[in-house]
Amino acid sequence: MFARLASQSTRRALQKAPVQARFASTKAQAGSNKAQIAAVGTGIIGATALAYTMVDNNVSANMADEGLHPPAYPWYQNSPVHTFDHAAIRRGYQVYREVCSACHSLDRIAWRNLINVSHSEDEVKTMAEEVEYEDGPDENGDMFQRPGKPSDYMPKPYANEEAARAGNAGALPPDLSLIIKARHGGSDYVFSLLTGYVDAPAGVEVREGLNYNPYFPGGAIAMARVLFDGLVEYEDGTPATASQMARDVTTFLAWASEPEHDDRKKMGMKAAIVLSGLTLLSVYIKRFKWAPIKSRKIIYNPPQ
Ligand code: HEC
């Protein structure tokens, strides 16, 4: 439709051109401009439609390869005006420490990061001191062991990747610091993965040493189900069901991959309040202070 109109107006412009040769620089030019605009417009609409079907509506022909799409859960921090649920971060840290840290590192989080987020400074110091870190060299050039400090990073379960693979039948447990950001579906995916272990459906073969989990792309994951009801004992008395622990550890990992989240939202809120105040002020000034000055008429009547 656009294209036909465009080509008609081009033709008309071309037909008129010889007659109006003298005005060629004005009228004929205007006609072909319109054609160009229409053609470019059609192109943009077409390209957008194509990109939409190719990128946005990317539906896999084989859901097993993509993994089952996780449902969207109402995470507390998803609301534009909520911070993280910090009690959940604290419980989630406990789950990470008692369960996940046997296999997964958390390289980007130092003990000090927990201060005033989930634990008090004294609690963090005590927790750090329970871990031995290698430091040095001392004056004799020897490395020595010392208790941890808040500036130390979370201890790793394995010395290196090879040791991690050897301990997990060849599979590498990924570092969890950024896992929420690193996986499609984020928190929803990790929660679904942790709670989604089921028996393989009839006809699906799972290799020895792997476990069936429909949310994991491919369906067979090297990590076995780790969360079972009552696995940890929460100090705040929350019943430690498998889904409660999955929710808490996922909240903890969401915080770990986005520790600036709460400050960012607070800053955004302040900016929105200040900027809307300034907008109202500038509307007021434009309307009531500037408008009379701008629209007044100054008449000079020279002396007769
Ligand atoms: C016994 C060791 C072990 C424990 C304990 C463990 N994991 Fe894993 N985890 C693994 C291994 C091995 C993999 C790699 C799986 C693969 O690539 O097939 C993995 C993978 C993952 C992944 C990545 C999945 C993906 O999409 O690539 C997440 C997320 C994860 N684990 C979370 C956790 C959480 C949270 C806990 C604690 C509640 C936990 N794991 C406890 C061994 C473990």
From TrEMBL:
Its EC number is 7.1.1.8. GO terms for biological process: mitochondrial electron transport, ubiquinol to cytochrome c. The keyword Membrane applies. Binds 1 heme c group covalently per subunit. PROSITE patterns: CYTC (PS51007). Keywords: Electron transport, Heme, Iron, Membrane, Metal-binding, Mitochondrion, Mitochondrion inner membrane, Respiratory chain, Transmembrane, Transmembrane helix, Transport. One of its GO terms (cellular component) is mitochondrial inner membrane. The keyword Electron transport applies. It is found in: Mitochondrion inner membrane. InterPro entries: Cyt_c-like_dom, Cyt_c-like_dom_sf, Cyt_c1, Cyt_c1_TM_anchor_C. Its cofactor is heme c. Residues 87-239 form the Cytochrome c domain. Heme c binds at C100, C103, H104, M223. Transmembrane segments: none annotated. Belongs to the cytochrome c family. This is quinol--cytochrome-c reductase.
